[in-house]
């Protein structure tokens, strides 16, 4: 399996560069007969685009239509069981902005790493190391979501920012998260302080600075008994899925690192908060809580002021993390069908 593929049963192949002709994905392993809901695909792509629900001042200025073109695998609004290929064409690339970095790599970016590793690389917009690659993941995740909506209709995946820079959700705010429309908040930070967070990011963008943060993914009513020990535990595949996203640098399940401070007699009370909805690498059917941390955006100072960059990755990454979650769930749901006779 190549490094641009993900999944064992629901297998996706991501392709394309930031300033190439198009980016796309080939999905192999999706069963036939799944209702192909184009509105889900369009909605998820729109959520990933810069400027969702008026957040234009705190995200990249690049404006791509991201209009999906389904090339194969779908007929009469149903999947055929054959490979599904979907692309979006690049229309707002400004390749001239990246001439300088061809020989002068940007600090904190992967420019020199890719060039030194491969000897020949596409420096325009970061090439394939660009966050724009995630559009392929979102398209694939939308199809995975279509599959789960038919096979496990009560399953819900919700992502949100729990921390951006110095701002963190309070315990009361965290309890209320499931009832919130996360996309109605500019920074996807479900709090009355979301406006302050947006102002912080706007100021950072203007001054050429950036912030990191923490995103959380809540999976409600996941299918039970997903996970393939020993090397494909559900938690390990989720961790790999999340940490494959650019700028991520940490992953937690349930109480995560907090559990180091808790005595076993307190921890092992059978609560889903402690275990995070996964035991033995297998889903229990209870809600699953996952956390992933992001470093501050690498584009700072003059690089940020001259280009079109996000002052914080977390806000834009949430639809991507949700897509990766759907992909893992779909993959493991299909895998579970062969667990026993």
Automatic annotation (TrEMBL):
Pathway participation: Metabolic intermediate biosynthesis; chorismate biosynthesis; chorismate from D-erythrose 4-phosphate and phosphoenolpyruvate: step 7/7
Pfam family, one: Chorismate_synt
GO terms, molecular function: chorismate synthase activity; FMN binding
GO biological processes: amino acid biosynthetic process; aromatic amino acid family biosynthetic process; chorismate biosynthetic process
Ranges for region Disordered: 103-134
GO cellular component: cytosol
Names of required cofactors: FMNH2
Alphabetized InterPro entries for the sequence: Chorismate_synth, Chorismate_synth_AroC_sf, Chorismate_synthase_CS
Positions contributing to NADP(+) binding: 48
Binding-site residues for FMN, renumbered to this chain: 128-130, 280, 295-299, 308
Keywords per UniProt: Amino-acid biosynthesis, Aromatic amino acid biosynthesis, FAD, Flavoprotein, FMN, Lyase, NADP
Free-text comment on the cofactor: Reduced FMN (FMNH(2)).
Catalysis performed (reactions): 5-O-(1-carboxyvinyl)-3-phosphoshikimate = chorismate + phosphate
Entry EC no(s): 4.2.3.5
Family: Belongs to the chorismate synthase family.
Oligomer and partners: Homotetramer.
Biological role: This reaction introduces a second double bond into the aromatic ring system.
PANTHER family given in the database record: CHORISMATE SYNTHASE (PTHR21085)
The protein, known as: Chorismate synthase
Species whose genome carries this gene: Bdellovibrio bacteriovorus
Lineage: Bacteria, Pseudomonadati, Bdellovibrionota, Bdellovibrionia, Bdellovibrionales
Primary gene name: aroC
